[in-house]
Description:
The structure holds two protein chains of two kinds. Chain A is α/β, with parallel strands linked by helices. Helices cover 41% and strands 12% of the residues of chain A. Chain B is of the alpha/beta class. In chain B, 40% of the residues lie in helices and 13% in strands. Chain B is globular.
Amino acid sequence: MSLDPSYLDYPRRGRGMDHDFYRYSNMFERAPIHWPGGAKVAIAIVVNLEWFPILPNDAPFRAPGHMATPYPDYRHYTSREYGTRVGFYRLLDAFASVGAQVSVATNAAIAERYPQIIADILAGGHEIVAHSTDMNGAIATGLPEDAERALIAQALDTIAAVAGTRPTGWMSIARSQSFNTPRLLAEAGLGYMCDWVNDELPYRFHTAGGDLVNVPINHELSDRQIITVQQNSADSYVEQMQDAYRLLADEAERFGGRMLPLNVTPYVLGLPYRIGAFEQLLTWLADQPGAAFLTTGAIAQVLHDSA
Amino acid sequence: MREGEKDPGLYDFRPYRGRPALAWPGGKQVAVWVSPNIEFYELDPPTNPHRKSWPKPHPDVVGYGHRDHGNRVGHWRLAEAMTRHGFPGSVSLSVAMCQHLPEVVADANARGWEFFSHGIYNTRYSYGMDERQERALIEDSIRTVREATGQTIKGWLAPALTHTPRTLDLIAEYGLSYTCDLYHDDQLGEVHVKQGRLISMPYSLEVNDHYGFFVYNMSPREYADTLIRQYQRLADEGGTVMCIPLHAYLIGQPHRIRAFEAVLKHIAADGRAWITRSGDIADHYMQQVAV
């Protein structure tokens, strides 16, 4: 049996990318980026604050970290809640101790269920990034466009009602999008998203609904990837972030501003036996000359301002 | 290969013990070649009935974006580190890179790197191809790399490691001299083909960065330590080949590149390595060893 002859057709084989979302760009040949305050390395901390219904939804896919045993999965439901009740507050204290402003990618269900958390986030001077409705709110091709538009609107409206301001940034569950997502986010008035991991600096994304900025929050550097997936220790995670920081600080001397994304999860790094290592990392980072903690909103704004 | 038989008949059994010694140029102990995979993955490729392109429905944003990092960021970081320590690359190339992102290909060519084919895209698989289709793939590879770089490819690493029973015979027929798809040895050896001469070039899955990070879940420093151990042992034994197969989207990440650079520094300083390209290793072997 041979393949259909069209399998050897390459309709998009030509100069540039095979889609129109963004243009190719070599990061080392761009105009240098200048962070507020003259920082060399912007440290972008993004905390994922999530609520997992005990009834998981598999359409379009079951979110990472979701229920795993037959119903009722007390084990995962409560372990994730531990992150929200306990671990997240350890993180908030750690950020306060180094004066870091961070971005919290927040499920709308958190705002609905726990408005006190929203107040505590805002009191700490942090940014709220919209992060879908709850952990059943995953997006992928197959989700009808109307349903996706409604999901985005519901997430934004719910957070706005509790927080008093509308988020300007978006992060999808598992960074998963449909072909429509960037356009729907732009049409919803969002200024940036954090889903595409193909770069280490913010860049412009084009849609039929207008342009937006992508602030890449590299999943490779996340605690979920390094600790949960690759099963490295918290100490190894810290060493890896320090190695990354040193490289980026050196590159910043030659190429302009660099960005170190720290994507952290309350139920991973917020545990008693791991939080100490993370606190040491924050202290070490805060001590580096030229380092500044910037929210993803502030990072996106640098690109908006240079447009 | 002998299609449909239990033993595919790829090569003769030759135990490691008692082989004639193989000499590398300059009395070096181990031929070391670094192989960056320079790949293009399509966002919305057509379906091959034998293998899914992406685990998620298209667009697989993380899968695609992760690979694209290699071309926007990782390649430039990795290439600088390799050049700094005197390592040329032997590139396993998705040849459509010559059309999509010729600046990456031109950069590698200007650094004196060799190219061999890794298919058109890493999202187009050979599974299910008939002979005419597979010939078109090979002819496209030869023509595309020649037009973009002036080089005539000598080697083959099947796209996404997808083969047909015909692949090895066909690449030998088209005059290619080595395949990177067989993992049975730390030394070069003859591959049985219908016509021409084809050599098996030791590549490696075990010390491939993808295996290091996502099969064995190593930290960057553990992976670097693995490469050094691999090198030390192969240099001690002598007459061997060590390949370091890499993906810029993995090794070129900011938390990994420095640990890897320390490996290059170690090998360059050791003095026992013939630091070279896969095609040079194949040429040397074919001149030294008669069929």
